[in-house]
Design goal:
about 70% helix; about 0% strand; 14 helices; about 375 residues; single chain; disordered N terminus; mainly alpha
Length: about 375
């Protein structure tokens, strides 16, 4: 049949019968065009000559590629929404993690696993006890994650352009290194905004915490320990989060190269990549998280047992953890931390990519309609 050699000129011109075309050929071409077969990605031969392909109902939607015109504001809004949702949804597990990292917990606060801990907290302390301190966390998570994702995206693109000016920021040869570097710098901004909220949150999460309101906790810490107490764990937080985020972003970008190499909006790939990246990074940095929790809470039993005054640095925290519980103490709460991080990073990445996609599409539609 002459259809194979006709190309864009034959199809673009419409279904009219050309020289040498039989009525049967014209009818077949008419049928294909009416069903939209001629609308290939390039509008040329490949689309025109391909017979109709039946869509598998189980194959899922054919997502459009992520728009390339996302602005810093887009990344900040998407990041803020993702951060708030992530922390709110996973907050009860975060409460359990904080308690399970306690070096010398009260006998009533010794838990075998995450589910038992959550059940006992609700049964003995009330339904809303695992949510205490959520408001200050949500308040800090919005601006912290806005800075975090905006800085990450901007730096990743900037660093990529150094090697490949104007090229794709997802080039496999450089993306992992750049993702790690961008994640490290983004962490500086994130932790600066989030650290005071972390201090208040973790003190309110501890068993028998004397604080029932955020304002009570903030006032007590300020009066008794000074403003520096809100950043006492900042260096440890950075020491933990810089490698955490480097591992996290590099793993995420690595998995995206395999599951979503075209970088299309694909929720399942964002969820899977985010969950795996979070689990790997969480397990690797648990010892640092235990030290951070000790610095934030200044756990009284641990302090009374070994030292006087406040624990003021990472070296002191590492020493205290070892004195109280040995090597195994560095991995207290690792189960809760991984269980928390898997859905947490899955939520963060999927929500972030969704809102980035949605906001950018709306911006482009608005510009096109002007």
């Amino acid at each position: 049949m002459e259809l194979e050699g006709r190309g864009a000129g034959g199809v673009a011109g419409g279904p009219a019968a050309g020289p040498g075309r039989s009525p049967g050929e014209s009818a077949l071409l008419d049928g294909w065009l009416q069903r939209g077969v001629g609308r290939g990605a390039g509008g040329g031969e490949a689309g025109a000559c391909r017979p109709p392909v039946r869509q598998d109902p189980d194959s899922g939607p054919d997502y459009e590629a992520l728009p390339a015109g996302a602005t810093v504001t887009t990344h900040m809004v998407a990041g803020a929404v993702a951060g708030i949702l992530e922390h709110c949804v996973m907050y009860p597990i975060d409460c359990v993690k904080t308690r399970m990292q306690s070096l010398q917990p009260d006998p009533a606060a010794r838990y075998r696993n995450v589910l038992e801990a959550l059940w006992r907290i609700i049964r003995t302390e009330g339904l809303w006890r695992p949510m205490r301190g959520l408001n200050v966390t949500a308040t800090g998570a919005g601006p912290a994650h806005a800075l975090y994702f905006a800085c990450y995206e901007k730096l990743k693109k900037t660093l990529s352009d150094v090697i490949h000016p104007g090229g794709n920021s997802h080039i496999a040869n450089v993306v992992f290194l750049f993702a790690g570097a961008a994640g490290c710098v983004a962490t500086l901004l994130h932790d600066a905004a989030m650290n005071p909220a972390e201090v208040v949150k973790q003190r309110m999460q501890m068993y028998n915490s004397p604080y029932h309101r955020v304002t009570d906790c903030v006032r007590a810490v300020w009066q008794n320990e000074g403003a520096g107490a809100f950043y006492r764990s900042y260096t440890t937080q950075l020491t933990m989060n810089v490698p955490f985020q480097a591992i996290h972003f590099m793993t995420y970008e690595f998995l995206q190269e395999h599951f979503n190499p075209q970088r299309r909006y694909n929720p399942s790939s964002h969820v899977l990549s985010g969950a795996c990246a979070g689990a790997v990074a969480a397990a690797a940095t648990t010892p640092l998280d235990v030290c951070k929790t000790l610095l934030n809470t200044q756990e009284s039993l641990a302090l009374n047992s070994h030292i006087t005054g406040h624990i003021t640095g990472m070296a002191s925290a590492f020493r205290t953890v070892y004195q109280v519980g040995g090597v195994t103490a560095y991995f207290r709460g690792v189960q809760a931390r991984v269980i928390y991080q898997i859905p947490s990073t899955a939520i963060a990445w999927s929500v972030y990519e969704f809102f980035k996609y949605l906001i950018t599409k709306r911006q482009e539609e608005w510009r096109a309609g002007k």
